[in-house]
Design a protein that fits this description.
It contains three helices and 13 strands, in the order αββββββββαβββββα. It is an alpha+beta fold.
Length: about 210
């Protein structure tokens, strides 16, 4: 029930932003995950960045809100937490609202933010056409290959400027994660012991 009420509130706020457009057409932006491929030992942590790029900073576009779902394989990796970027304002100072639900179960992560800053303040923060919207932290569970990707079919997928005008969004690729076996401590010890024995035997040769 709590989850349902939270999602209704978040969707209402984001929809309000989409419906209160006060400016003209905005330029298209691209959403992607970085890096595009990773090789991670089992039982280690790793991070993925949700990147917004192609923002028309010369045309004075700004990002005032976003809602993105990220898909992953929970049998291979475990989602730990998320951290929002600074370009929409400081959540701790109430300059923006973290509307993320986080791990929604079934391999779906929801990340969303709404800024309360003025457009001019956002433009001051968003001087680059590309920046990090959020960082997602994971833990590698098992050996194998998996993919982390943005859900391009999510009905709530969207990015708006401060006035609420939707920015056309292109979703670019995903992340290929290769989970490799972690180094076995016993094998390392055995290898070190063998190397030490070889060194000793070599040292006795005149």
């Amino acid at each position: 029930m709590k989850k349902t009420m939270f999602m209704l509130l978040k969707n209402a706020l984001f929809t309000l932003g989409l419906m209160t457009a006060l400016t003209g057409p905005a330029g298209a932006v691209t959403l992607s995950l970085s890096p595009s491929d990773l090789t991670i030992p089992v039982s280690t942590n790793f991070s993925i960045n949700l990147i917004l790029s192609d923002l028309d900073v010369q045309g004075r576009d700004e990002v005032g809100g976003f809602d993105v779902d990220v898909l992953y394989d929970p049998s291979q990796i475990q989602f730990l937490t998320w951290n929002l970027g600074a370009q929409l304002g400081d959540v701790g100072l109430s300059e923006a609202w973290d509307l993320s639900w986080g791990d929604m179960g079934g391999g779906v992560i929801d990340v969303a933010e709404l800024s309360f800053l003025a457009a001019t303040d956002l433009q001051t923060l968003q001087t680059s056409s590309s920046f990090v919207l959020a960082t997602l932290d994971f833990y590698c569970l098992a050996y194998g290959d998996s993919t982390i990707e943005i859900d391009s079919n999510d009905v709530w997928l969207g990015v708006t400027n401060r006035a609420g005008t939707p920015l056309p969004v292109t979703v670019s690729g995903g992340v290929t994660v290769s989970q490799v076996p972690a180094p076995a401590p016993l094998l390392l010890i055995a290898a070190a012991t063998a190397a030490l024995g070889l060194t000793r035997r070599t040292g006795r040769v005149v």
